[in-house]
Design brief:
By secondary structure, this protein is an alpha+beta fold. It has 13 helices and 33 strands.
């Protein structure tokens, strides 16, 4: 070495200079008062976070190590002024070390992160301001914020931690403890632990997380942990894999979630999902930045199966949900909770590769529609739409059921397409396919105002009435093909409130059909005699040459403009109304013979009661004065012709009703 420096004097002096710099730097590091950096460091944190920051304790720096360490005592970062609690983050002691060896390889690895006495207070108010939205003093929402990307941590220690979260939008109040740690050098699948508890929507909330040891963790090796969350009746079991620790932009999560009502998940996700019966859903989701992909969702809602794909994009001011869902078998009763009703629970579903978590929470009412309103005694549910939730997201969802279970209705499939755009919800198409014929159309709900405005436009297309009979009947009470058109508009936060104040039209036409003696079994009285049809054993049926029922809806009252059923021997007419506010039915049907008869029954058929409990009888009462054939057939013909055009303009050209109406107008009662 001496010979080298003897022949290279410049190298000798270079070595002396480098050694002097190192010694000077070491002397500086040993003697420098690092507390002089408290002010500049606090100001830097304040500038970057938008939150007032103070450092009340000492700063210690240990540079002479392959893992240099920084210790800060008494760091405090304040909340915005509007928050209830002054401190957003504070800790008695923070210790962080960094690996120089990994840093030279371009990897940021922290061998130790230790938090002693951390206090975290996070708040969001009803306007959406959040204390965790950093960069501004007020916490204005930044919808383009991406998940946090943290360096790999070999050892995380949290001692005596406290976490308090208040979210007024999701009704979350969380006050619990945070504890994390592991025993150095021990192989333990649950070496890393987090235990915390609180409340969600005034119900118990608990989160437990367990992971393997963080020792020797590298950014190139995935890290997995499990978490179990219970909140109210929600039970969520997850297995999380961080692809590149701890880059939270890239996660794979296998989950199983179950509960009483899928709408409750809003408080965890912010997604305005529909009300459902008891549910159990499993899937694996992939998080890449602001995009969440769910390629294999499967499970059950009530007694209906559900599967499909979903995508959630959180890069905009509102989350965007895109989904393609299917059911092999849909029990139509499972759609009732969407309108505010309840159905029996489904079987639980096991988590792929593991057992289903034990459900121990007591069930609680859904935060969506009110159960009290759903049990109001009305046929139409009176559960209020959660307009704020509908405005809080956008969606594009398609759904199809391969087969449908519904009592006494021969339905074979169901499909719909839902578009939710800035508070405007459109269902188009909405299709119920029967064995023969279908009910199809569109529904639009404008929830951009506090009292949503709804428009319904549905068509009844060639439905075969022969299919509608009970299991005890040999034949259907009515035969033929039915067509119709329903068009209503109005305002209201529930189906019942909408119907109570709606306006519109409803028309049904049977261009050709028949009435059988089974109608007496259906109604419980001899309707045939009451209407003068007089079907005998030899003649089990009578032909319907044309049947028209037309209602005008005004402020929630359906008034009959036309009840016109022309049979071979009797012309059946009717009057009355249906009050949708209390769902009372007041209808009367009267049969008038086309030929002179010595005996003529004049007792009208009365349909009363409510939509939920209708009653059919022969007690005329006061409605008898309104029953019977119109004084002039012309009072029926004009609205009847209009009803035909309203349903299908083609009916006016090629259906039997046109001939019947023309004959009646000309005074011809027989074909």
């Amino acid at each position: 070495m001496q010979e080298f420096f003897l022949h290279h004097p410049k190298s000798k002096w270079a070595g002396i200079i480098v050694l002097g710099v190192i010694l000077a730097f070491g002397l500086f590091a040993a003697l420098f008062d690092w507390n002089l950096l408290r002010g500049p460091l606090a100001r830097t944190i304040s500038r970057e976070t938008g939150r007032p920051t103070t450092i009340q304790g000492d700063i210690h720096v240990h540079l002479w190590s392959l893992d240099p360490r920084l210790q800060i005592d008494g760091l405090t970062i304040d909340n915005p002024q509007w928050a209830d609690r002054k401190v957003m983050f504070g800790a008695r002691k923070i210790i962080v070390s960094i690996s120089l060896g990994r840093l030279l390889l371009g990897q940021v690895v922290l061998p130790l992160v230790e938090l002693i006495g951390p206090e975290i207070n996070l708040e969001r108010d009803a306007t959406g301001r959040a204390s965790w939205e950093l960069g501004t003093r007020s916490g204005t929402p930044n919808h383009n914020t991406k998940p946090v990307r943290l360096p790999a941590i070999n050892r995380l220690v949290i001692d005596d931690g406290r976490l308090h979260v208040v979210d007024q939008i999701r009704k979350l109040t969380f006050s619990g403890s945070l504890v994390a740690g592991e025993q150095h050098g021990r192989e333990n699948s649950s070496a890393f632990k987090i235990r915390s508890s609180g409340s969600l929507n005034a119900k118990p909330f608990r989160l437990d997380a367990n992971g393997g040891p963080l020792l020797n963790l590298t950014p190139t090796k995935p890290y997995s942990f499990s978490a179990h969350l219970t909140a109210s009746d929600i039970d969520l079991a997850t297995e999380v894999t961080v692809r590149k620790p701890f880059d939270l932009n890239a996660l794979d999560v296998k989950f199983l979630v179950s509960g009483e009502d899928l709408a409750d998940v809003f408080y965890l996700t912010g997604l305005a999902l529909p009300n459902t019966p008891k549910y159990s859903l499993a899937a694996t989701l992939h998080i890449d930045g602001t995009t969440i992909e769910i390629p294999n969702l499967h499970g059950s809602l009530g007694s209906s199966d559900l599967s499909g794909t979903m995508q959630i994009d959180t890069s905009h001011d509102k989350p965007q949900l895109t989904a393609h869902l299917t059911s092999q078998v849909l029990n139509l009763a499972d759609l009732a909770p969407t309108l505010g009703q309840r159905v029996p629970p489904p079987d639980r579903l096991a988590l792929p590769g593991g057992a289903a978590p034990t459900h121990t929470s007591a069930p609680s009412p859904s935060p969506g529609p009110s159960p009290a309103a759903a049990n109001s005694g009305f046929l139409l549910p009176d559960a209020d739409l959660q307009v704020n939730r509908v405005r809080g997201m956008n969606a594009d969802v398609t759904y199809r059921a391969g087969s449908v279970k519904v009592p006494k209705i021969p339905m074979k499939s169901f499909n719909l397409h839902v578009i939710l755009n800035n508070g405007l919800l459109t269902i188009d198409p909405l299709v119920f396919d029967l064995d023969e014929g279908k009910l199809a159309g569109r529904v639009q709900i404008d929830a951009r105002q506090d009292d949503p405005e709804t428009r319904v436009d549905l068509h009844i297309e060639d439905i075969n009435l022969d299919e509608f009979k009970s299991t005890t009947m040999k034949e259907a009470p009515l035969g033929g093909v039915m067509q119709g058109h329903l068009q209503f508009q109005g305002t209201g936060t529930s189906v019942h409130k909408f119907a109570s104040a709606s306006n519109g039209d409803m028309s049904v036409v049977i261009p050709q059909g028949e009435i059988s003696d089974a109608i007496a079994e259906l109604t419980g009285i001899n309707v045939l005699q009451g209407l003068g049809l007089l079907i005998t054993k030899e003649q089990k049926k009578t032909d319907i040459r044309c049947g028209i029922m037309d209602f005008k809806d005004h402020d929630g009252t359906l008034n009959t403009t036309t009840v016109y059923i022309d049979t071979s021997n009797v012309l059946i007419t009717g009057r009355g109304d249906i009050n949708m506010r209390d769902e009372d039915i007041k209808l009367s049907l009267q049969g008038d013979p086309k030929h002179l008869r010595l005996i003529r029954l004049r007792s009208p058929i009365i349909v009363g009661g409510t939509l939920l409990h209708p009653k059919v009888g022969l007690n005329a009462g006061k409605l008898a004065e309104q029953a019977g054939i119109a004084a002039a057939l012309g009072t029926l013909l004009t609205p009847a012709a209009a009803a035909i055009a309203f349903i299908d303009p083609g009916l006016a050209k090629n259906k039997d009703c046109t001939t019947v109406l023309a004959q009646a107008q000309a005074g011809v009662q027989n074909p």
